[in-house]
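Entry type: protein chain
Record version: 2
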Amino acid sequence: MSQPGVRAILLAIALLAGACGGSDDADAADPPATTPPSPTVADSDPEALVAALPDDARPAMTAVLGSFDALRSCPDLDSWTATADDAITQLEAATDAIEASAEADDWTDSEPAVALVDTVEAGLVYDAGCDDAGEGTGDARPVAGRISGAVDRLRSTASSGMLGASSAFWLNFDFLGHTIEIDRLERESEGVHTVIVGDSATKRGFDPLVLSDDTGVVVMNAATDGTLPSMFGPWLAEIEALGASPARVVMAVSSWTAAVPCDDRRAELLTAFGENRARAFVGVRALEPVDPARRVLGLPAQTYQSPLLDRYQRTQTPSGQGQYRQPDDQQAEVEAALADQQLARYRSLFADPGVCDTALAAYTDTVQASVESGIDVVMVAAPVSDGLAELHPDGRVGHESLLAPYADASEAGGATVLDLSDALDDDQFSDLVHPDDGGMATLTAALLDVLD
């Protein structure tokens, strides 16, 4: 149920357009772009970038850089594969050395760190499609997939917060998961009818499989950790770029995301959205035009391994349209250890809460553009636990005051508003903000009443 012009409209109102569209047709006239972003450090000298590394990582990384010329020359397949295998081995050794080094803290998150990964990515990944090495063969693709995974691992090592909220790559693993789901649905000829966007509580709060079964249309939970309402427009543009054309969008707004101040770091990340997205899974996109491996996940499972893929596999239900799998015991222990940090973060957030006008305006534009393009929009006011309510100086009334401007803007824009802020009992949360299994069932049933 495609809506004409939806993607164009969302792209127009997005603060930055998405940069990671992929082709689902191996013979498409315009295959995915394979030009990496320029290194963060202008005119970076590879030797200087290596010199910035911890001592133990330098020899292996020097060997990696030394393989570029041989790979770029596109030799015969056997020679290309042998050189690439050696480069992967050296890259993994360099990453091991960085992770083990006491000096790595000074290097991680630095401009030379990001620039080095960009340099390695450009030298290794983009020549995986050499006509002489890759065209018409099944042997180059698995090696290219391993290169992609090794580069992703290096980038996660170079960016300490890559897998955490508010980092420059905080949503990459979700993007990978959504790429998998949309591609699978397209191959099965099931178009995505309803897309749910929001933060991690939204991801854990709504079961898309139950919603799909009961509504008779495909519902995809495309929520991502830490997403602010101001980012819904760019994120929906990303979903559109992957091939989904929803007839309905559910936008869940939490009081804690509504209270994020205008100078929050995520606002800075939004300005870098296109560049960061272009860096994400660049090797995966380079393989898309190669039939039948448009998606590297279609290759043998061992071909592509990275921290991001690992996290996706541990937290998403296979073929579940974005359904979140509750943490296993080990993950639960980690979350318990972070409970004090979570409490401190929310206590700080609600010390002087208010709604950022520019964030509200961006959200309002997204709602209006979506409705005007023919999309049915539902705004959900996310549930607030008793523990979270107590952190606001005005209690639940204060949380309601944060959600009210978003509800008003939604109604004014033509959206349906579903208030679930008081829908859960405190024992239906796994922590201050995330619903547990019982909470998910309750919220899913409440949303189903509106979608039906």
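Comment: The radius of gyration is 22 Å.
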